[in-house]
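Exercise: predict the structure of this protein bound to fe (iii) ion.
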Amino acid sequence: MADIVWRNAQLATLASDAEGLGIVAKGAIVCESGQIVYAGPEADMPYVGSARVVDCEGRLITPGLVDCHTHLVYGGDRAQEFEMRLAGASYEEIARAGGGIVSSVRATRAASEADLNRSALRRLDHLIAEGVTTVEIKSGYGLDIDSEMKCLRVARGLAHERDVGIVTTFLGAHALPPEAQGDKDAYIARVCDEMMPAIARLHLADAVDAFCEGIAFSIAQTERVFQRAKALGLPVKLHADQLSNLHGAALAARFNALSADHLEHTDEAGAQALARAGTVAVLLPGAFYMLRETHKPPVEALRKHGAYIAIATDSNPGTSPLTSLLMTMNMAATLFRLTVDECIAGVTREAARALGLVDRIGTLEAGKQCDLAIWDVVRPAELVYRIGFNPLHARVRMGR
Ligand code: DI6
Ligand code: FE
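Solution:
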C-alpha cells in the first residue's frame, strides 16, 4: 500500500531512457515503504487508497542530491595557508615546505573522534540544507592506521546523527606522512599490507582512492594500491591528472574504476578511455577555482566520446573549502561550460553512478529509494544560475 504521494509537481526524473532531465510537467511521485513505486504524469498515477497526499503547488522535484567526492572529516582548517597563497605562494610550494595536506594531517591526528564529528557535522549540515541526501567521505588526513580508522568511523557515524546516506572511501594514499621520511614505496607498502586489509576486515570503507600526482604518488605506486584493493574486493577511484598529466585517467579506466576525479590535465585519449570503461569523470570546479587553475578538464572530449560526467564539491580544507553543491553547479557551468542538464545530472544520476549506486538512488524511477529535493523554482536552470541562494523547499529521504 502506498503511504505518501507528492502531486502537482514538475518532475526532473533523470530517468536514463528519457531526454535531457526527463521533465514531467504535471507529475506525481508515489512512495511505499521508503521506495518510489511510481514517478510520472499525475494523470496516469495508480490508485493510492488512503495514502497521505502532499500538494507541491507546481514546485520542481529532483532526485535528492548526491555529493560523490568529499573530504568532509578533518581537523583544523587552512585559512592561514590561504593567506599565504594570496601573498603569492603556490599550492605545490606550500606542500613541499611541509604545509598543505600534511598540516591537516597533524590537526586531524590531534583531534578526538568527538571533535572530528562536531566539525564534520557542521559541514554536512550545509550540504543537507541544500537537498543533499547521499555524501561520499574520504579518509586521507590520518595517514596512519589508527587515525585513518578514526576518520572512517567518524564518517560512518554521521549517518546515525543525520538522515543521510554516507559512503566511505579509504584514501591512505593521499600524501606522504612526515614519519615516512620521504620513502613513498615503504609507505605504499604499509597502505597495502597493513591499513587496507584491516580497514576491509572491519568494513570501514566502501571503496579505495589514491592521489596520483607528482607531489603525491606515481602511476606504479597507484597500481599497487589498486591491485590490493581489487584483491580485497573493494572498488577503486582516483584523483587523476589534477595538476599534471600522469595519464591517471587511463590508469583508472584500466582498473575499471568507479570514477576518475579532477581531470584538469587529462588528454583526449584519457577521456576516451574513461568513456570506454564506463568510469565516471568527476569534475571538481571548487578546487579549480580555489587554485586559480587555468587548464580546464577536457569537457568537449568527454562529451564526444560519451563519458559519464558528474560534479562534486571536493569539500576539503586545502583546495576546496566548499560545502555547497548548488554553488558547485554554478561553477561547473561558468568555469567548465557544462550545460544546465549536465550540471543537474552531474549531482544526481551521474554522481550516484560514480558511487556505484545508480541502481538504488540518483533518479526518480520506480524501484529507487525515495530521496527527493523539492525546490521553489519554476525552471530547472534556476538551480544552476543563482549564486549563494538556496531555493530548497523540502528534502525527503527514504520517503520521510
Ligand atoms: N586533491 C585535492 O584537491 C585535495 N586532495 C587531493 O588529492 C587537496 C587536499 C588538501 O590540500 O588538503
Ligand atoms: Fe579530493
